[in-house]
Amino acid sequence: MHRYAALLRGIAPSNPNMTNDKLRGVFTGLGFETVGSVLASGNIVFRSAEDDVPALERRIQRALNDELGIAGGTIIREHAELRALLDSDPFPGLTHGRGTYLTATFLKDGAGPPERLPEQPDPLTRVVGYDGAARVFLAVIDNSEPGTTPDFMSWLERSYGADITTRTWLTVQRIVKKLES
Hints:
- 31% of the residues lie in helices and 27% in strands.
- The chain is α+β, with helices and mostly antiparallel strands and 181 residues long.
- The chain has 2 domains: 2-79, SP0830-like domains (Alpha-Beta Plaits, 2-Layer Sandwich); 81-179, no CATH class.
- Strands 2-3-1-4 form a 4-stranded antiparallel sheet, sandwiched between helices.
- The two termini are 15 Å apart.
- It comes from Georgenia ruanii.
């Protein structure tokens, strides 16, 4: 049995069709086991014997769209991938906060790695790297100026389209903890 995290894009907890109980209901209806949610921003953990991740992503996204009208993307990572990412300690000595907003931007399974990382794209972002095993960009963003979108996030959208989703490092840690409970 595989332990997975589904990272859903475009979830607005204030939307009555996007509450954790409705999201979990879709996953339970698909026959997944040990379905749980992490925070209210579209992070669902579950177990399944299925091992074709792209097929799982398509199946879940189709069900979310059909049952709840959620057209955003679904990105899945296996527990082992996320655990290895945490164990690699990509943000040594840093603490998540306004001036050091630690982020992980996940690519859809099957998306190719970048030919090269962008140069430090703007003064608000420090690109830490790209983890090929977890298919994730890691960056430290200065979030002390609300309402500004760093150029790095725009570069990610231009390069990979809507097949990405970003989580804070704290959220990634919470997801792994939930997968291990």
